[in-house]
Amino acid sequence: MKIIECPRDAMQGLKKFIPTEVKIDYINMLLNVGFDTIDFGSFVSPKAIPQMADTAEVLANLDLKNTKSKLLAIIANVRGAEEAASHREIDYLGFPLSVSETFQQRNTNKSIAEAMDQLAHIQDICGKQGKALVTYISMGFGNPYGDPWDAETVIRFVQDLDKLGVKVISLSDTIGVSNPENITYLFSELIPAFGHIEFGAHLHTTPTTWQEKVDAAYKAGCRRFDGALRGYGGCPMAKDELVGNMATENLVDYFENNGLNLGLNKQAFAAALAASSSVFS
């Protein structure tokens, strides 16, 4: 079981800039917990995401000596991939690919066709630099723009990514519209058909629907879950203030109640959970 903690996703939409020192201290606390991966920052235009303008400085001050956690950075183009890949500390590069043409343009200023072309180049960069590419299929369960969506479209996207050699794909419920039925269908179809690909779930949710979503994905074979402490963050396109990231503490409770030993440092987890309130205040 892999839990990916996503402070980057929790922070990036905040208008008030979180001081760099606060980010460093908080992410260092998360590194002590024992999560599989920390999605810590992004190498994108500071004009697009001002909150992430200090990612390189944050990275330079992380204490990686006594952690088993790997680092993931989000990128949106070849330039960002080249910059991220130049840092030996980073293990994963994450690229958002949307099944919604509208969202792809809004999120990365590219068409889906242009994004796929960029992905091919980014996959090549990852191969040469010893990094792994994580592709997020955003709007993977629907979109608010009226763009066409169905499960078969998502499966076709996976087929195209497979041809590029992508080994990690995370299905992203960008606006919180997934339900147990479409979660079960997609993971049940994809995991057996692409046994060489690691599938993840990046699910946004309301406080009352998180468990049914996690339960559906887990029972359909998913073993990679993204979360953010206290459910901070989420997508502004959701148009629902109750829709946020999957709360990591809920993920931990669910899996431990199902008898899984996640190997987390409980004291460090409690400290990070307590600190999150002030970080995002």
TrEMBL record:
<dbReference type="GO" id="GO:0016829">
    <property type="term" value="F:lyase activity"/>
</dbReference>
<keyword id="KW-0456">Lyase</keyword>
<dbReference type="InterPro" id="IPR013785">
    <property type="entry name" value="Aldolase_TIM"/>
</dbReference>
<comment type="similarity">
    <text>Belongs to the HMG-CoA lyase family.</text>
</comment>
<keyword id="KW-0479">Metal-binding</keyword>
<dbReference type="InterPro" id="IPR000891">
    <property type="entry name" value="PYR_CT"/>
</dbReference>
<protein>
    <submittedName>
        <fullName>Hydroxymethylglutaryl-CoA lyase</fullName>
    </submittedName>
</protein>
<feature type="domain" description="Pyruvate carboxyltransferase">
    <location>
        <begin position="1"/>
        <end position="270"/>
    </location>
</feature>
<dbReference type="Pfam" id="PF00682">
    <property type="entry name" value="HMGL-like"/>
</dbReference>
<dbReference type="InterPro" id="IPR043594">
    <property type="entry name" value="HMGL"/>
</dbReference>
